[in-house]
Amino acid sequence: MSETNDKDKRIQELEQENATLRAEVRALLKEVAKLRKELDEWKRGFRVRKRRFSSRPERKPDSERKRPGRKNGHTGAGRKAPDHVDRTEHRVLDLCPDCCVMMSDTGEAETVRVEDIIPSRVEVVEYVLHTFECPCCHRTVKATPPAELGKQPKTGMGVQRLAVSLRTEFYMTWEAISDYFETHVGMRITPSGVA
């Protein structure tokens, strides 16, 4: 009789353990379904395609890549400003970019020299960037060089067009493009400056 009681007790223990395990399995299946759904959403939003037939080497991870530029404390090595100006353009603002009210000239100006290629010669354009004050909001705003030149222009659109053309249409390296500018145009640009 004690043997039957032991068997019944063991059966009850196993049934309880079975019920507990089934509940855990149900919870885990729900978690797996939720994670699969998140993974599918992530894949749809961030699909990464392999590059085909690329001649460029694979990028190194950020931890292995060298940071661009010189180390802290070293002086910069930018291009030298042109020593002459062929033409001067004054850039002015008529309206405040924020409130569209007529601006008043503060008398301050900054110059930006940009080298550009005119067929068969280099032309240096100096932009005089006047500063204006808005009588409405009293904000001072400085005029900018033409937007197509970028924030800190050193070369004009002719130089940029030619560099892109030589790189994409003629598959020249940055060094070859730099040599081309120096030989055929008389303009010295480093390969990194071209890039």
Which key phrases capture this entry?
195 residues; alpha+beta; 3 domains; four-stranded mixed β-sheet; 37% helix; elongated
Summary?
The protein is α+β, with helices and mostly antiparallel strands and 195 residues long. It has helices at 2-45, 157-168, 174-185, 191-194, and strands at residues 87-91, 104-118, 121-133, 140-142.
Describe this structure in words.
This protein has helices spanning 2-45, 157-168, 174-185, 191-194, and strands spanning 87-91, 104-118, 121-133, 140-142. It has 195 residues and is α+β, with helices and mostly antiparallel strands. The chain folds into three domains: 1-38; 83-152, no CATH class; 155-195, no CATH class. Strands 1, 2, 3 and 4 form a four-stranded mixed β-sheet that branches. A hairpin with a 2-residue loop joins β2 (104-118) and β3. It starts with a helix and ends with a helix. The mean pLDDT is 82.
Count of DSSP strands: 4
N-to-C order of helices and strands: HEEEEHHH
Q: How many DSSP helices?
A: 4
Helix content class: 25-40%
Mean pLDDT: 82
Report how far apart the termini are. 92 Å
Number of domains: 3
Label the structural class. Answer: alpha+beta
Kindly estimate the percentage of residues that lie in beta strands according to DSSP.
Answer: 15-25%
The shape, in one word, is elongated
Over the alpha carbons, how many angstroms does the gyration radius reach? 34 Å
Largest sheet: 4 strands, mixed
